[in-house]
Amino acid sequence: MDKCRSCGAPIKWVVTQKNRRMPVDLEPVEGGNIELHPQGEFRPPLAVYHSIRPPGIKYYISHFATCPKAEQHRRKQQKKDLPNPVIRGVVSQQLSHSEEQ
Ligand SMILES: [Zn+2]
Q1: Axis crossing angle, helix 85-100 with helix 70-80, rounded to the nearest 10
Q2: Taking the model in full, what pTM does it have?
Q3: pLDDT in tens, 30-74
Q4: CB 3.0-4.6 Å disulfide test: which of 3, 21, 32, 39 passes with 43?
Q5: Which residues contact 15 (CB under 8 A, 6 or more apart)?
Q6: 17 C-alpha to center of ligand 1: Å?
Q7: Residues within 5 A (CB) of ion ligand 1
């Protein structure tokens, strides 16, 4: 099992439809918006975002949205100067989602 390097929470790595790696919380959650599609033994599951969430599916949430140290993640990324624009987009999307709630 993988763990977040910042907060130690159990996570799993998935890939987005743009083929970017992204950590999600290990367990599906009520407010999640990511459906995971298994892609076989040797590839991480594919993350599919749902803005309208049909029932009967387990939804996961990006760990960037729940990590208590997400601020730190972002600062580190900025310092290293290798930000991932896709992931960054996901993060701000997720954050604005949670602010709405
Ligand atoms: Zn974390």
Answers
A1: 150
A2: 0.68
A3: 999 999 999 999 999 999 999 999 999 999 999 999 999 887 666
A4: 39
A5: 21, 22, 39, 43, 44, 45, 46, 47
A6: 22
A7: 4, 6-7, 9, 67
